[in-house]
Amino acid sequence: MTRTHTSSHPGGGPDTEGLAASSPREARRGRGDRSKGGPTTAGSALAARWGAGLLGLMLGLGVWALLTSGLVTDDPVISGMSPARTWSGLGDLLDRGVLLSDASVSLYRLVAGLAAAALLGVPLGLWLGLRRRAEAVAGPLVQFLRMISPLSWAPVAIAVFGIGNEPVIFLVAAAAIWPIMLSTSAGVQAMDPGYLDVARTMGASGWERLTRVVIPAVRPSILGGIRLALGTAWIVLVPAEMLGVRSGLGYQILNARDQLAYDQVMAVILVIGVLGFALDSLSRLLLRGGTAR
């Protein structure tokens, strides 16, 4: 009888160590290590991305300068919104000391409106996501209310709250609550129900299931909803500040328009864009950190 013998060395048969090293997991790990590259590759990719973004900004600036240079139209209003005149208008606003104070007021109203929307939207979203019957009853009403433009509530807000910060904060909250509520509800419905079953089997109370199971599971959805609400609230904030208030970036646009200072109008518009971009970038970082936990 002939006995078959396998050897672990190269000359005597299959190499089991080589087979282990060439398993699918190791192969994927090897491909991942090769695809990551070194610090030089990562730095080059980052530099290329920043370079592309800078190129896009320069192209936009060139188009802006061309449209306001007088080659397209000789309208004095349009020529007054050129990049050079806008830079001069920005300097005038800074010298008067109104731009920073108006930006601070606008950011306060934004944060207050978002906080109010989150305090209402997150609990309501959890309630709708956990209670199917509540969703069936309140769902049509929620869909109806969220389709109403927040600015259409402006006369009601002014009549109820009067003149000042309160109506603006109300309009911001009215715009921001729906993304937060619906995103939270969708996150609860997408959660694996087995988590709640395990917690219930282990004797966890309703409050413990909510705070230790549901909220940590839907935290990415809550943060994503807040980021969406931030963009919506920032868009609503500026026109809301054009209604019966005497401070804020929206008011400053109207004030500059009444003085026919269109260079200052463009300056405030640029400040609004820069602040909005910074807020979105900050929310993206917070969302990345919250989902990584």
Automatic annotation (TrEMBL):
* CDD domains reported for this sequence: TM_PBP2
Q: Which InterPro entries match?
A: MetI-like (IPR000515), MetI-like_sf (IPR035906)
Identification of the protein by name: ABC transporter permease
Q: Where is this region: Disordered?
A: 1-42
All copies of the ABC transmembrane type-1 domain together span 103-283
Q: Please state where this protein is localized.
A: Cell membrane
Q: Which Gene3D superfamilies match?
A: MetI-like (1.10.3720.10)
Q: How does it sit in the membrane?
A: Multi-pass membrane protein
Organism this protein belongs to: Dietzia aurantiaca
Pfam family for this entry, one: BPD_transp_1
Q: Where are the transmembrane segments?
A: 46-67, 107-129, 141-163, 169-188, 228-245, 265-287
> Which keywords does this Swiss-Prot/TrEMBL entry list?
Cell membrane, Membrane, Transmembrane, Transmembrane helix, Transport
Spans of biased composition, class Basic and acidic residues?
25-36
